[in-house]
Amino acid sequence: MDGWITLTDIVQVLKKMSAEIDGPIRSYIGDEEPAKLVEASRQYPYAGGKRMRPAMVIASAGAAGGDRDKAVPLAVAIEYIHNFTLIHDDLMDGDEKRRGMTTIHVGYGMPTAVLAGDALFAKAFEIISTLDVPDSVLRPILRIVTKAVWDLARGQQMDIDNEGRIVSMEEYIETIRLKTSVLFAAGAAGGALCGGGDERTVEAVHEYAMLLGVGFQMFDDYLGIMGDPAKTGKSAGNDIRKGKSTVMVTHALKSIDDPAVLEEFKAILGKQDASEDEIQRARRIMTDSGSIGYAKDLADEYARMAVEKIAFLPPGEDRDFMIALARFSVDRDV
After folding, report:
1. Of these four, 107, 204, 229, 267, which has the most CB atoms within 10 Å of its CB?
2. What does each of the 334 residues of the chain score in pLDDT, given as a tens digit?
3. Domain ranges of the chain
């Protein structure tokens, strides 16, 4: 591989890495009582998915010149933290489906969903404590991961607060940086630390993942409006009904020239009982205003900037995978 491998290739590599980490992901939650909590805690991490975050942890360790196996426990911990946030996100958003499955708060009840998220969070830090690295490396890993979780909570609250209000592009980007990018970045920097990376390498992969995460979330927001629900596993139109601030909405509100169309768009945005016809009309308005194309172009630009950050790393399979992962983050259907 050299740089931009094909989308088909990266999907296959992700599937291979996901299969390799599936065993470790399943190894840390033992059979114990109460079984209901254990089953709920296992549902999301055991269900698979893209596994981009753990893959990035492992690749960053290799790209830093270290032993990729030493980063596997951290990769599992980052995946657990990610899934802990998904459980709580679904509960806060009232979503009934995740990856085609019934969400945990629906299947097990709200109290168990809260506890399952808490349990995954605690287990993640127990796993990090077992990393086979010197204390001088373990401490910065713990610091960066805990800071990421704190920032993630801030971003999630900002995302909630932004619903139903017009936000600036700067506010939107800061929200998704905190909500999404910080965990990608913590995993990448932590992986590089596990791999013995020097300060320049750790900082570079951290910045790479931060930019990738912004592009990833922008494209995720795009899929939430324009994606195929059969592929994404997400309810189409929910972001419009919630009045969620996305790059497309922010751009459209500033770009729609016709006052009548603008008022029509605002009337649909945030309308919880909007019909499918109204959702389709909102999509058409955003397309006609250039907002859909703008969002895709901006996500692409963030992926390009991410790649620039790691261009100096020695050529190799792990660096090339990270480059391809940036492309995949803004060129996927799920």
Report:
1. 204
2. 344 566 678 888 888 888 889 999 999 999 999 999 999 999 999 998 889 999 999 999 999 999 999 999 999 999 999 999 999 999 988 888 887 789 999 999 999 999 999 999 999 999 999 999 999 999 999 999 999 999 999 999 998 888 878 888 899 999 999 999 999 999 999 999 999 999 999 999 999 999 999 999 999 999 988 877 767 666 668 889 988 889 999 999 999 999 999 999 999 999 999 999 999 999 999 999 999 999 999 999 999 999 999 999 999 999 999 999 999 999 887 7
3. 7-329
Phi, psi of 97 (to 5 degrees): -130, 145
Token representation of residue 254: 């500033």
Q: Which amino acid is at 195?
A: G
- The superfamily in CATH containing domain 7-329 is Farnesyl Diphosphate Synthase (1.10.600.10)
